[in-house]
């Protein structure tokens, strides 16, 4: 019996399990260029990390005065992203090890993401993570995206778990805030180092300030087991 009896783990996807932000940046850059906004920078992209794609394009529409509808911008961005994701998405090695460790101990797991269902499915299938992560929730399926708790609460519902028994694994401040709002513990691994001091991360039970380069499956397992002891 593992030290995690009664615990469920809910993973964010982009920037947490997989290094997908470069693909999302490029998809956004191409979409905005096609709609008359050239030179969209990585620094500008970082402002939207952790926010659902739907909410991101709505913010673009207002910020850049785009005439296209949110639905059209979303479809355009998703199409470009899926093309890029199909060419390859890298799983963080220690995250794959962590998922496999949890699976071996039969810990219930889910993915709760701001990406579309199509994007979630494509990435999980393409990386082989779908063998372990069969319960998924897209922000498109709930009323509000992160930092609202809706996706995490829906993931808990689908797992049949109480929110207090769930641990969220996140890379972005809105996700850490959503975990707290859901009444869940959080393992935070900031994908944008400059955001490590964001107040939302201060509420995380475990904050890996060095990001993915400092994260190890063994350390995460030890922390979870200790908190569940």
From TrEMBL:
| Stretch forming the signal peptide | none
- On the tree of life, the source organism's domain of life is Bacteria
Q: Which InterPro entries match?
A: HAD-like_sf (IPR036412), HAD-SF_hydro_IA (IPR006439), HAD_sf (IPR023214), PGP-like_dom2 (IPR023198)
- One Pfam annotation reads Hydrolase
Q: Give coiled-coil spans as residue ranges.
A: none
Q: Known Gene3D superfamilies for this protein?
A: HAD superfamily/HAD-like, Putative phosphatase, domain 2
Transmembrane residues, as ranges?
A: none
According to UniProt, the name of this protein is HAD family phosphatase
Instruction: Provide the species name.
Output: Streptomyces hintoniae
Q: What is the lineage of its organism?
A: Bacteria, Bacillati, Actinomycetota, Actinomycetes, Kitasatosporales
């Amino acid at each position: 019996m593992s030290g995690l009896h009664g615990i469920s783990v809910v993973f964010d996807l982009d920037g947490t399990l997989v290094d997908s932000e470069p693909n999302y940046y490029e998809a956004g850059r191409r979409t905005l260029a096609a709609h008359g906004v050239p030179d969209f920078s990585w620094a500008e992209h970082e402002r939207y990390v952790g926010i659902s794609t739907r909410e991101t394009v709505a913010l673009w529409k207002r910020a850049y005065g785009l005439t296209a509808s949110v639905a059209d911008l979303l479809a355009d961005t998703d199409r470009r992203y899926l093309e890029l994701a199909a060419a390859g998405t890298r799983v963080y090695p220690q995250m794959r090890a962590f998922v496999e460790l949890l699976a071996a101990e039969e810990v219930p797991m889910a993915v709760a993401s701001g990406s579309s269902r199509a994007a979630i499915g494509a990435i999980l299938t393409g990386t082989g993570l779908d063998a372990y992560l069969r319960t998924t929730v897209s922000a498109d399926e709930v009323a509000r995206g992160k930092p609202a708790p809706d996706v995490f609460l829906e993931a808990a519902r689908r797992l049949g778990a109480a929110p207090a028994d769930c641990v969220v694994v996140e890379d972005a401040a809105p996700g850490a805030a959503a975990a707290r709002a859901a009444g869940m513990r959080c393992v935070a691994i900031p994908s944008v180092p400059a955001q490590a001091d964001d107040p939302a991360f201060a509420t995380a039970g475990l904050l890996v300030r060095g990001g993915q380069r400092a994260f190890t499956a063994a350390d995460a397992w030890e922390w979870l087991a200790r908190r569940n002891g």
